[in-house]
């Protein structure tokens, strides 16, 4: 059995595994896809102390750093069930392969995924104009025209943020009203370089084969299609934590995020969590790494108090 078993091999899981291994305790990582979301990223310019890198490169570096230590890396395996420690028995992580891994402490770092529009052109132009993270990719569109899809809090926050960087922002909302908080809506309405279009259903991402050149939306009040010329599209219709398999076992927030305290402890003793899968605000690489380190130290502290 493991002393610490990490589920997830993204920035949070990698940091957790390294911090555990450095304590000299038996550490394992099980991951569906080692590297996590960074594998789907191109330019990364906010990984502090590294001016510029690329996602696949960072993904390889994460795995290499973990493998510098005596860590059991179990890649391409998906966890489907968690049984927390009980009555002196170890915690169990059940894999889809049928295997059961046992550990004294478990750190969950299964991350999240952005909800997509599922329209033609979106997948083709991902990282070539279609973006999901304004904190990450906003500066790449300096002085350009962008759209934000989604009029909830994240969409309106993204539009306000981007309006300070890009030349023009068009915010498109499917419904006939925005769902964001009133203060955010008021702030948005006060900005000179923002256009808000409601009752708009995005239909297609247009491009020239290299990058995004526009988008087509249907005006749901007239049923007519309209085209906007632009260089970037930020999709802000939800971030889905990879926690479906945990909902009967742990306390999750209304959005499905694992609730954690300041040490990364979840609602079950000995079960810790870190990164995009948790309630920690702002989903970023450096934040996920810090949270992974913290949850791992939290788990170590738990282990020395529960011999
Ligand atoms: P993830 O990276 O999502 O890793 C989750 C891990 O868990 C993966 O290994 C996954 O395979 C595994 N997993 C999931 N479910 C299971 C399961 N049931 N069983 C086993 N394993 C499982 N952030 C920045 O700071 N800067 C950027 O420039 C930036 N750009 C981005 C661009 C894109 C296109 C995307 C999608 C994200 C970007 N981000 C960026 C956000 C950043 O990638 C995330 O905040 C970060 O990767 C979160 O790390 P994590 O370890 O919590 O989760």
From TrEMBL:
A single GO molecular function term of this UniProt record: flavin adenine dinucleotide binding
Instruction: Quote the record's binding site residues for FAD.
Output: 3-18, 266-276
- Domain FAD/NAD(P)-binding intervals: 3-292
The residues the record assigns to binding NAD(+) are: 145-159
* Domain of life where this protein originates: Bacteria
Keyword entries, A-Z: Disulfide bond, FAD, Flavoprotein, NAD, NADP, Oxidoreductase, Redox-active center
State any GO CC term.
protein-containing complex
Name the family. Belongs to the class-II pyridine nucleotide-disulfide oxidoreductase family.
Q: Give the record's subunit note.
A: Homodimer.
This one is known as Alkyl hydroperoxide reductase subunit F
Q: Which part of the full protein is shown? A: 212 to 518 of 518
């Amino acid at each position: 059995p493991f002393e610490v078993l990490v589920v997830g091999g993204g920035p949070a899981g990698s940091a957790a595994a390294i911090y555990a291994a450095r304590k000299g305790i038996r550490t394992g990582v099980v991951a569906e896809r080692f590297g996590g979301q960074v594998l789907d990223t191109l330019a990364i310019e906010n990984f502090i102390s590294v001016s510029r890198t690329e996602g696949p490169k960072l993904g390889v570096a994460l795995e290499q750093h973990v493998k510098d230590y005596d860590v059991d890396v179990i890649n391409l395996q998906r966890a489907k069930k968690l049984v927390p420690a009980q009555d002196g028995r170890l915690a169990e992580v059940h894999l889809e392969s049928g295997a059961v891994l046992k550990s004294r402490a478990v750190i969950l770092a299964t991350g999240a995924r952005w909800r997509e529009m599922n329209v033609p052109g979106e997948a083709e132009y991902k990282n070539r104009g279609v973006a999901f993270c304004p904190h990450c990719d906003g500066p790449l569109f300096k002085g350009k025209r962008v759209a934000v899809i989604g009029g909830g809090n994240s969409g309106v926050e993204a539009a306000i943020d981007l309006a300070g960087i890009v030349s023009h922002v068009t915010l498109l909302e499917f419904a006939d009203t925005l769902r964001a908080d009133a203060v955010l809506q008021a702030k948005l309405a006060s900005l000179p370089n923002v256009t808000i279009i409601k009752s708009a259903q995005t239909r297609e991402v247009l491009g020239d084969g290299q990058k995004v050149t526009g988008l087509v939306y249907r005006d749901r009040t007239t049923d007519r299609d309209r085209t906007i010329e632009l260089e970037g599209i930020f999709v802000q219709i939800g971030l889905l934590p990879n926690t479906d398999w945990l909902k009967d076992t742990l306390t999750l927030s209304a959005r499905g995020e694992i609730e954690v305290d300041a040490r990364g402890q979840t609602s079950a003793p000995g079960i810790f969590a870190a990164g995009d899968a948790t309630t920690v605000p702002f989903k970023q690489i450096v934040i996920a790494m810090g949270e992974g380190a913290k949850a791992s130290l939290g788990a170590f502290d738990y282990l020395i108090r529960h011999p």
